[in-house]
Design goal:
- It is a single chain.
- The protein has a 4-stranded antiparallel β-sheet, with helices on one face.
- A hairpin with a 4-residue loop joins strand 2 and strand 3 (93-100).
- It has helices at 5-9, 13-34, 56-76, 107-118, 146-172, 174-197, 204-233, 241-247, 250-273, 276-324, and strands at 45-53, 83-88, 93-100, 128-136.
- The longest helix has 49 residues, at 276-324.
- With 325 residues, it is of the alpha+beta class.
Length: 325
């Protein structure tokens, strides 16, 4: 990455701010026209999972019959299916999933299907077919609707941004605190805008992912503030873009971002294997990382330059006024 990267980009705060506004506006328009993606598959429910171990070729031939057996057993038990789907875990492992209301008792139908598939003389007795149940609360339907949820999310984000700004202002000067507050707020706005605009399913994981994005942004801002304050103590004039670029190299942010990206990838891998909610959180967090990087590389330094110049000008005017007195 060019050593003059920050020097070139830090003078375009209007452009970077407009891009944030456009992303938010697109999200608002999409939400107004289409609502948020609150698909039925995100609702809580009790799941009947039929794990089937057989070759892909055999499974393709037998899938319809397996579904008929399951649906007949469900109908005989007088149960109503909310929705169903199929999945391929590997070339030899497949699953049929039926989702019911959380209060549904699936014990009888589960036992009946297990007995059916394992019975002597059954065409599937040599295949490993196991029926299990699971209460799914991984992607919960939003309590009270998505508007109150988004409002709560917004308020939580404002609180995080304010606290972060106050902390940095106390440690690293007021102007750095203002930049931290604005960067964290912009990061949250970009993350939510991207999530809504790209029709990602809105779940309770969204709130945690947005707060995660703000946390990453605060880490970047704190690093920036610490380096900027040290440079100013050493006599650097950070109202000059070249001096700012030298004091806070963009490559420092890049190093941290790589670590965060690896952590998100690890969460996605672990989640895909063990915990679907972890994988979902990691997916949405990737949006947050993109937003935080945008703020760290482009928006934050440009806001710092504008705000620092404003404080320097105010101090100069005050000094001139005091001199005249």
């Amino acid at each position: 990455m060019s050593k003059n990267f920050t020097a070139k980009t830090s003078q375009k705060w209007v452009l970077w701010s407009v891009i944030v506004a456009v992303i938010v506006a697109i999200g608002v328009v999409v939400m107004a026209l289409m609502g948020v993606n609150n698909a039925p598959s995100t609702q809580s429910g009790k799941m009947l999972i039929v794990n089937v171990t057989m070759s892909s070729t055999q499974y393709e031939e037998e899938q319809a019959n397996l579904q008929d057996i399951c649906e007949t057993a469900i109908a005989d038990a007088g149960l109503d299916v909310k929705y169903s789907y199929t999945g391929e875990i590997s070339l030899q492992s497949h699953e049929l999933v039926y989702v019911f209301d959380t209060q549904t008792d699936l014990t009888a139908v589960k036992d009946a299907l297990n007995a059916n598939f394992s019975a002597a003389g059954n065409k599937y007795e040599n295949n490993f077919i196991n029926v299990t149940t699971l209460t799914n609360a991984v992607q919960e339907n939003l309590p009270g609707g998505y508007v109150p949820f988004l409002v709560r999310n917004l308020l939580a984000g404002v609180v995080v941004a304010v606290l972060a700004g106050v902390y940095v202002a106390l440690r690293h000067k007021l102007w750095n605190g203002i930049v931290t507050f604005l960067s964290a707020g912009a990061t949250a706005a970009i993350t939510v805008g991207l999530i809504i605009a790209t029709r990602v399913v809105i779940t309770t994981s969204v709130m945690y992912a947005v707060l995660f994005s703000m946390l990453v942004s605060v880490v970047f801002s704190t690093l920036f503030a610490a380096k900027a304050q040290k440079a100013e103590k050493d006599g650097a004039d950070l109202t000059d873009p070249e001096a700012l670029s030298e004091a806070v190299p963009a490559c420092d942010v890049l190093k941290i971002s790589i670590v965060v990206a690896v952590a998100i990838a690890a969460m996605a891998i672990v989640g895909a294997i063990l915990a679907p909610n972890f994988a979902w959180f990691a997916l949405i967090s990737a949006y947050g990382l993109v937003a935080a990087l945008y703020s760290a590389f482009l928006l934050g330094p440009s806001l710092f330059l504008v705000i620092r110049k404003a404080f320097a000008k105010s101090a100069a005017n005050k000094a001139r006024y005091d001199y005249k007195k």
